[in-house]
Amino acid sequence: MNNDVIHAAMTTWATKDLPARLYAAQVAKLLNCSTDDVALLVSAGRLKPLGRPRVNAVKLFSSIELFTLLADRQWLDEATKTIGQYWRRKNERRNGMNTDEQRDVALGNGTNRRAAA
């Protein structure tokens, strides 16, 4: 990281009067997402908690590191894609259709299994 980004992150952190360590709910608020999405980003390797917490332990995140990530547009783009892909796949599993079937239904080339039943 270059010094300008670190300096800007430190300035932002100081003006927001945030603690050095943030809980997942605080991270979610800064990212404008849910705490479930924060857990998803951790499991995908996009966010790294402090220390080496166990799977079911409360995770804390570095404020300075988070502000540097928030300043990186490419990281935000990848995090948004990761969250979107997860929820798209989950909805596909819930609806019982795979990606090809959904594409065919959307294009009008096929019929929905549920509608045919």
Could you name the key traits of this structure?
mainly alpha; 117 residues; two-stranded antiparallel sheet; 64% helix
Task: Describe what this molecule looks like in 3D.
This protein is mainly alpha-helical. The protein has helices at residues 3-16, 24-31, 35-43, 63-70, 73-95, 99-107, 113-116; strands at residues 21-23, 60-62. The chain has one domain. α1 crosses α4 (63-70). It is elongated, with a radius of gyration of 19 Å. The model has no long low-confidence stretch (mean pLDDT 83).
Quick summary:
With 117 residues, the chain is mainly alpha-helical.
- How large, in whole angstroms, is the Cα Rg? 19 Å
Class derived from helix and strand content: mainly alpha
**Overall pLDDT level:** 83
Tell me the total number of β-strands.
2
The unreliable regions are: none
Which helices and strands occur, and which strands form pairs?
Blueprint (H helix, E strand, L loop, with lengths): L2 H14 L4 E3 H8 L3 H9 L16 E3 H8 L2 H23 L3 H9 L5 H4 L1
Antiparallel strand pairs: 1-2
Helix pairs in contact: 1-4, 2-3
